[in-house]
Structures are given as C-alpha cells and as structure tokens.
Amino acid sequence: MQKHQYEVVVVGAGGAGLTAALYASHKASTAVISKLYPTRSHTGAAQGGIGAALGNTEEDHPEWHAFDTVKGSDYLGDQEAIDFMADEAVDAVYELEHMGLPFSRNPDGTIAQRPFGGHTNNETGKPVRRACYAADRTGHMILQTLFQQSIKNKVRFFDEFYVLDLLIVDGKTAGVIALELATGEMHIFHSKTVIIATGGHGRVWEITSNAYSYTGDGVALTLRRGIPAEDMEFFQFHPTGIYRMGILITEGVRGEGGVLINGEGERFMERYAPTVKDLASRDVISRAMYLEMKDGRGIDGKRYLHMDVTPEVVNHYADVDGRKNPDGSPYRVTASDILNKLPDIIDFCETYIGINPISDPMPVQPTAHYAMGGIPTNKFGEVVVDEKNTILPGLYAAGEVACVSVHGANRLGTNALLDLIIFGKYSGLKAAEYSASEPYLDLPKEPEAFAMQQLDSIRQSKGNERMIDIAAEMKQVMFDHVGVFRVEEGMQQAVDKVRELKERFKEITIDDKGLKFNNNLIEAWELSNLIDIAEVTAVSALARTESRGAHSRDDYSERDDKNWLKHTLAWMENGGVRLGYKPVQITKYKPKARAY
Amino acid sequence: MQVTLKIFRYNPEDGRKKHYDTFTLDADPTDRILDLLEQIKGSEDGTLGFRRACAHGVCGSDAIRINGVNRLACKVLVQDLKSRKVTIEPILGLPIEKDLIINMEPFFDHYRSVMPYFVNDDPPPSKERLQSPEDRERFDDTTKCILCAACSTSCPSYWVNEEYVGPAAIVNAHRFIFDNRDQAASERLEILNEQFGVYRCHTIFNCTDACPRDIQVTQAIGEVKKAIVNGRLD
Amino acid sequence: MALSRKVGLIAGAKYKGGGPMLSWVLHRISGLGIIIFVTLHVIASFLTQQLGSDLGIFVNTIYESIYFQLFIVFCAIFHGVNGFRIILLDIWPRLIRYQKESTWIEWFVIVPLYGLIVFIMIQRFLQG
Amino acid sequence: MRSRVMPKPSWNLEYLMWVFTRLSGLSIILFVVIGISAGLLMGARTQMDLGTLMRWGFFPNPNHVLDSDIPDLFLWTNGFWQVMQILVVFFAATHGFNGLRVVLEDYSSPGFWQVFTRFLIFLLWIFSTLVGIYVIISS
Predict the structure, then answer these.
(1) pLDDT digits (tens, 9 = 90+) for A269-288
(2) Which of A310, B107, B229, D39 is the most exposed place for a label (fewest CB within 10 A)?
(3) Is position D4 within any domain?
(4) Concatenated DSSP letters for A135-157?
(5) Best of A91, A243, A512 to disrupt the B interface by mutation (most B CBs within 10 Å)?
(6) How many domains does one find in chain D?
C-alpha cells in the first residue's frame, strides 16, 4: 500500500485528461492516473476534425456553430454551455496550433477546414467548412500534441494504474484508490480535487468503433458512489463503421464529397435530408440507413450499405449538388486528393477488408460510437449531483465521460474533440483554483476497504460462468434492442437480460490469480462496469417515451417537447436504478422541428 | 479454418521458466491476430497477458513479434500469413514483464530525451501561425508515429545498446526539427549528434519494415543525419 | 531475463529482417574480415622483414590459399559495393524510399562481378 | 526565427568519424579503381595474375607484388605515387580501425572498457599506418 498526495488528481489521460492536467499543473501539484499509456487513449482514434468557426475559407460565426449544435442536439443541449463552447472553440483551436499541432493547411497558410455533418451556413442551410483537420488523423495529432506538452511541462504520470474507487469525505472529494497493474499493489491518492476523464462506454454494444478500453469506468465509479448519470439513453451510432468490424470511417469522407449508396445504387440520403443530404447529422443518417436496410435495400439484401468516395462518384454528385470550391470553380477531386486527405481510411480498408476506397465503395453499417450521456457537470466541469444542479465540491469531469450537456440527444461530428479541449481546460483551471483555497481532508480509516472488497469478490468468485459469454450476451442484446431503433418490448427484454447477467456475473470465474499484470481481473472489473452502464442505459431509454436525437423509438416516433424536454438522471440504488429529471437550459433557441 | 498459435509464455509469479504454449483454434481468414489472442484469453487461458486498446492500429498498444517480425497484432489478419502456424513472441530489446507484456519505460525514457515537444518562445499571434502546405508536408510522415515501439525493438543496434535512443525517438525529433514553426531544432540536433544519437543507426531498415504506420523511419533518420552534417535544414 | 534489455546473438539473428538486414550483417563480417586479415598481414610481414620471424611466413601462407583469397575478395567487393550504396543513401536521404530496389541493384552488381573473378581465379588455380 | 539559423554542429569524435568514414570509403573505391586501371595500362593485363592485380589495386607498391615481372613497375616509386600510396594507407587504416571501434562500441557503454578498447585500437592504427608508410618510403 502506497500513499501519494497531490492537489489535483486527473483520472484518465486522453484529450480531456491531458488538457486538464496541463492547465492544472501550472498552479497546483498534479498527477495523472491512467490505465493505459496516455498515447493509447481513444482520442487518438478520432479522425475527421475539430469544429471551430474560424472562417478560414468561407464565412462562419460561432453563433452559427452554436445554433447547429443546439439543433443537432435535438434541443436537449444546455444552450448556455453550448454558446460557451462555440465561443471558446476558436481560441481553443488557435491554442492547439500554438502548442504545435500540425493541422493541414490552406494554400494561404491558415488552418484547413472541411464540411462536416450538421454544420451549416445558417443563412443558406448549406454545409459550411468548419472542421479544422489534420488529414484524417486529427485526434491522433491532438493526443500526441497534448502528450508532448505534458512532457514539456513535466506533468507527473502514473501510467497503467487502474482507478477503482473515489473517496468522498463529508460530501467533498478526498482522493482515489488505484491499482498498479504492474505489481497488483493498491495506491491511495490523497487529493483535494479529482478530475474524471475516463472516456465513454461503447463496449456495451456489439458493433462499436470504440477501443477495448472504453468500458465506462468513470461513470460506473461515480454511480457506485451515489452520483447520478445523466442522459444515458442517448448513445450515438455513427453511420459509417466498417461492416462487421465497426472500425470508424470518418464523416470527413462525406465532407470530402463521399456519398452513401444503397443496394439499388441510389443515393438515398436525398430522400431523408434534401438540403444537406449526406452531411445530415449522425442520428438522421444512421436512422435512414437502418430504414433502408430494414426495407431490404441493403447491399445484396445484407445489413450494410456502400460508402462511395471514388473520384468519379464524388465529382458526379458534386455536379448534381452544384458544390463549389471557395474560389467559385466547380468542386473536383482526384485520386491523389483522396489519398492525401484520407490516408488512414484507405489504410484501414486495405488492411481489414482488402478494398481500396479510391476504386471501390466501402461496406459500412452504423456502429456504436459516442456517449452523449455521462457524469452531469456544469459548463466549468464541476460535477453536479441532483435535479437542482448542486455541486459536489472538488469533483470534476470532462470529455466523453461527462454530460455538460452540450451534445444533448445527438452530438455533431467534430464537437467531441472540442468538448475535450474546452471542458478539459476549464475543469483543470477550476480544480487548480479550488485546491488553492481548500485544505486536504482527513482520509477515513482503511480508505481502500470498499474497493478491496469488490475486487476480492471478483478474485475469489468460484462459479462456472465465463466472462466472454456474459459480455457477448450483453453486447448482443444491447445492440439488437437498445441500438439505432428501439421499442418498448425490446428494451424491456434488454433490461431483464442485463439484470440476469448481473446475477450471473457473481458466478464468474477468473483464471488468473496472480498480482502482476492481472488483466483477467481488470477485464472482469471492466465487465461489471459495462453491465452497470448497460442497465442504466436500458432503464433510462425504456422510460423515455418519445423519439429525440439518437434515442429513436418505433412506438413513439415523435419528439415530445411537452413531456420530455428534460434531462434524465439515473441513480444506482439498492441494486436497482432510480430515475429523476432536470430541466434543459433554453436561452436563445426555442425548440422547433428539425429538418436537414 | 484451423490455426495453430505458438505463444511465448513467461510469468515471474508462477515459478516456471520461459516457454511456449500451443493453442489450436478455429479462425476466419479475416480475423485479426488480436482477435485470436482475445479468443484464447476468453475461452482457454485467462492468464495470457498482452496489451490492447483500439484494435485498429492507431493506439500502438499491441506491438508483438509475429512469425519473427514486429507487427501490431490488430493489423495482421490470418489471411495475411503464409502458414497456418503462427509464432507469437514479445518484442525484443525491452524487459519482459509477463507473457507478451514488456516494460515500456526505457522506450519512453529515450523518447523523452529528445525534446519531443513543440518549442516556440515568441509570443503567439492572435490567430494561427501561418505555415504553407509544403512546409507542413515536410514533416508529415513523422507526425504519424504512435509510439508502439515496433521500430526501436526491431533495431539490432537498439537491442544491444541501452544508451542508443532508437528509431522512434529520432522520428519524433525529426517531426519537430523539420517543423518550421519550431525553434529548438538546433538543441535536438545537438542531442542526436552524440555517440548514442543518430550514429548508432546503421541503415538496417528493420524499423521501416516494422512500422505499422508506414513511416519511412530510416529516411527520417537519414534526413536528421544530413541536417547534422550540413548544418542546415532543407 | 527479468529486467535486462540486452538481446542475445541467437535471439537477434532469429529476427526476420529483410535484405538490408542481411547486407548489414555481411557488411560487418566483411569489414571485420578485411581488417583482421590486413592487420595480421601487416604485423606478420613487418616481423618477417625486420626480425626474420617465421610467424609472418605462416600468416602469409594463409593469405596465399585460394579459399582464403575467394573469401577476402568477396569481403572486399561486398564491402565496397554495399558501402557505396550506403553513402549514396546518406547523401540523398530521399532515395531511401527506394531502399528495397537499392538492395536488389547491389546484388545485381556484386553477383556478376564476384562470379567473374571467382571464375578467373579458379581457372588460374586449376591451371596451377 | 531562431530555429532556421543553425549553429555549427559540435565537432565530436562521432561526427567527424561518421563524415570521414563516408569520404574515405568513397576515396578508397576511387584509389582502387585508379590503381587497377593504371596497373592494367602498364601491362598488368598480360603479365599479372588476378590475385596480384587485386593486391596491387589495394596497395600499389612494388614491394607488395615483387614476384611479378612488370617492366614499368618502378614508375610507381616516384614521389607522386608515393603520396598516393600513403593516402591509401591512411584512409584504409583509419576507415578500418574506426569501423572496428564502431562495431565494438555498438555493444558497449561508456566506461573503462570503452576507453581501454579505444586506446588499443588507437595503438593498432598508429602501428599499421606507420608500418605502411615505412614500407612505401623504404621501397
């Protein structure tokens, strides 16, 4: 048992965690605890771009960005926070550039921007170039740049430490308990503040673009400590994942002019979103794809469609749409443009499905992608724990794990990276500010007892269940019934199934009894997190009797602003889930029908 | 189809010497080696230790030796292999912790030693620093590095010399040396102009072959050498 | 093996590097071959000439053996051609992209050159 | 901008020897080509066997190929060719012994043994260079 004392402890070392640590470390002693080496974080898999209304190639304004985000969120996003994010976005991107981030460039040397789903010119309704990108590796560049800057600023890292428990004393944050993977030893991190930045939980679903490590550790951790989870029913399915594997094909492909084609060779998005077509927001496209496949218009009747970015097709539809370059000439691409702008996508397709996207269309299906919901916070990253937005002192959350909520019911592409940087920054600043004035709290006796007890119950369990089966059944039922389309009966089935799995989980056996790098044990712990999250997600979804954003139901197909313009809060209590609701902050933009 | 995996095993806790375990399992031609490892860990032997995260070649967790060469387990499919027998070993040149898990600390120490971060002490402009697409292109190749260590641990010089910074560190130095916004190129070149800098590179090209991101590692090192010798960046 | 990083010769040799790795190994072997021989030769000749030692004569008989000459000629040619390739790549790092081709070209030069020399040497040897 | 003005690289041993290795490698190839061509021009084509010619090429000194009967052999003893020979010896010995040092130092860390082996190699280098020059001058 080792003890460490830091004013600020950041849990997770992805985009949000590293940004928070960078800002906090200027003013407070800071430690970053991460179950992975920082550069393994899933931020690195983000491809298309980070949204900011720089207006480098055409007119754009933060207000437009804010409105697009509100509209994209299906009016469930908190508008004050959204305004804040869209305003901060421009400076945030410049700040990243000043940190050395190698953005792709326009011929005049400014940061290059591309169109992305749901981002529009508010006057014409046409797509606008707002996503600042570095080829199709924007997330990779952000993660690397932040990691590099953390090295420069000598941030203290605890790599491959798995946080098991959050310590709360008298309603205030006091630290975390972590397991050092390399030795199996417990560490107590005594701190004034904790910033949770552990990312999402896409591994709940069968087909997902998310990393193995995306197991909802942060949300599960806080749920166990009586902190609610907000809007968990809203989980984004990205329209274009590689068929059966789920590996992401960035929306940037459509930004560069790629189109979705169904089994009849038709560009079906014209029917669902006549103005922006393939650049509608993600929930709209995923739903359209689902409907196409349901009606038997998948490729060869199977459950996938084609994403076509071959130059002939792109140029053809650019003509049809009348798309122009910034200088007014007709939009044209060549094979080498595609290669330069989407090198990684081409590499993925060649590696995994043996297809070269420059000459052949890619088989795609919707893939579980992003958690809009998570730990409820305000716009400074401070965790709020009830319907009245009461702050829990010293606890912060940022990134995908948090629900500010700027994404509401559906996140726009490029806003995730923005979310990381901005709310990471402010939670870091706020945490440093808080720790400057507050003392360390006394730790309880045996602070590790709660974590130890849970860990031992997994370690010593002697049943016959294998993790791989439980995980597979959970992923299956969640993908089938709490996926792109949902109905009462299916969701009920999912709730029942997940509860059954929760019981069966108590009977699992793990092969590895050792201490050193006991990944077997950690995976069991992660699975228990996933099951908790699946349950909260399914229960929250079942209760919401409307269709909004990513939560779309066959049995309640309309948005119901009268009853459901509110955030869900879910507590885990007495082995079940208790739901509560809090209002949505609406300032400038009154809810109206959403069409693209 | 049936695939046989011969996997290197070593666990300091079980008292056994290093050895190989053989597993035979059903696989699709399009399965990744990582999928097979997951399958073994899930249904046959939960004690098997290996790292993984993103599973599509962008995080760099799962660099291992597959049939004698460094690869990412998530970027090699069963159909890419010539035989149905696969030998899986940890990468060379870093201390083995457990099975396929190696200690990455020496690798990151080398990485940190070359100032792998952007340095520009001038007050930043209110907007972005301008950079032409050509200047951006100059160092594009080396920005792709994911720090998986496949290159360094394929390098015979790195295997035998604990001081040599290794290809990965030089690649990351190259990324900043040739970024015309950066101001610390000369310091980095000074660091690499040492006995254990670029001079331990003997153009063996194992690194270029091993790189899962297709970075021209040896070329990057060559460009750094040339910059040192010429005293100029072009 | 716990915390040592060093890789043994056998473990290293089992790594399946490509043609350039072979070239590197041969460059080392040929370079060492040449230098060990030349040093011995110089020392031995010096001793023989200046002190009349028999050791030098013995070393020089190795030198005159056809097998040894075949070996040392290979060393010289390989070391020269491969060294030339490396120098070219060092001068123009952009050519490194074509390293696979460069390795092939190297063998296209070495094999005929060495083959011709071997042919002549063996012919002479057989003629006595 | 600061970065674009490069300071002169510090001239340490590794740097100098790296450059020298490349230059000397190229010049040895050049000298050998000259030596062999000149030898052929001077009648070696018909009067020298291949082995001797090679030996000649690498060390064009009459003493080194005494057993041949090239009539023009003594052309090589003039001052110009002696300087050429000395250069060959210097380049080859330095290239070779530095190569030996590089190989050994690939496998060693700074410390006593590195200093010791460097010293040993230095002695060998001095010795063989001096012997070579002695042979050239005295023949």
Answers:
(1) 999 999 999 999 999 999 99
(2) B229
(3) no
(4) TT-HHHHHHHHHHHHHHHTT-EE
(5) A512
(6) 1
Q: What is the ipTM of this complex?
A: 0.91
Q: Is residue C71 part of a domain?
A: yes
Among the partner residues B161, B183, B197, nearest to D1 by beta-carbon distance: B183
D in contact with B (at least 3 C-beta pairs within 8 A)? yes
A559 vs A549: CA distance, rounded Å: 9
- Please state, in angstroms and rounded to a whole number, the distance separating the CA atoms of residues A233 and A74: 14
Adjacency order of strands within the sheet including A229-230: A229-230, A566-573, A576-583
Domain that holds residue C34: 21-127
Beta strands across the sheet bearing A113-120:
A50-51, A127-132, A113-120
Q: B97-116 burial string, b = 16+ CB within 10 Å, else e?
A: bbbbbbbbebbbebbbebbb
Which CATH number does the domain housing residue C114 bear? 1.20.1300
pTM, two decimals, is 0.94
Domains and CATH numbers, chain B: 2-102 (3.10.20.30), 105-230 (1.10.1060.10)
User: How many other C-beta atoms lie within 10 A of the C-beta of residue D29?
Assistant: 16
**Number of structural domains in chain C:** 1
C93 and B156: CB-CB below 8 Å? no
> Lowest-pLDDT range, A10-19, A497-506, B26-35, D29-38?
D29-38
Q: How many CA atoms lie within 13 A of D107 on its CB side?
A: 8
Q: Do B67 and C16 touch (CB under 8 A)?
A: yes
- Choosing from A129, A282, A411, A544, the catalytic residue is A282
D95 within some domain = yes
Mean pLDDT of chain A: 94
User: Residue C88: inside a domain, yes or no?
Assistant: yes
**Is some CB atom of chain C closer than 8 A to the CB atom of B135?**
no
Are A363 and A306 a contacting pair, CB within 8 Å?
yes
Nearest CA in chain C to D25: C83
Distance (Å) from the C-alpha of residue B157 to the closest C-alpha of chain D? 6
pLDDT tens per residue across span A215-229: 999 999 999 999 999
Spatial neighbors of B145 by CB under 8 A, at least 6 apart, are A144, B168, B171, B172, B175, B213, B215
* Contact call for B156 and C16, based on CB within 8 A: no
Q: Which of residues 38-77 of B touch C (CB under 8 A)?
A: 65, 67-69
Cβ contact, residue pair D99, C31, below 8 Å: yes
- Which residue does chain C place closest to B214, by CA atoms? C97
Q: For residue B179, list chain A residues with Cβ-Cβ distance below 8 A.
A: 100, 102
Is residue D5 domain-resident? no
Chain B nearest-CA residue for D5: B232
* C81 is a domain residue: yes
Measured in angstroms, the CA of C31 and the nearest CA of chain B are apart by 14
Q: Using CB atoms within 10 A of its CB, is residue C37 exposed (0-12), middle (13-18) or buried (19+)? A: middle
Query: The domain containing residue D60 runs over which residues?
Result: 13-138
Other C-beta atoms lying within 10 Å of the C-beta of residue C67: 9
Q: Which of C1, C6, C7, C15 to mutate to test the interface with B (most CBs of B within 10 A)?
A: C15
**A470-507 tens-digit pLDDT:** 999 999 999 999 999 999 999 999 999 999 999 999 99
Residue C64 in any domain: the answer is yes
Given an 8 Å threshold on Cβ–Cβ distance, is B147 in contact with A42? no
A282 classed as catalytic = yes
Query: How far off is chain B from A107, nearest CA to CA, in Å?
Result: 6
Q: Is residue D3 part of a domain?
A: no
Chains that touch C (3 or more CB pairs under 8 A): B, D
Q: What is the pLDDT of residues C57-116, one digit of tens each?
A: 777 777 778 888 888 889 999 999 999 999 999 998 888 888 888 889 999 999 999 999
Query: CB–CB of A108 and B130 under 8 A?
Result: yes
Please identify which residue in the block is written with the tokens 């193995």: A212
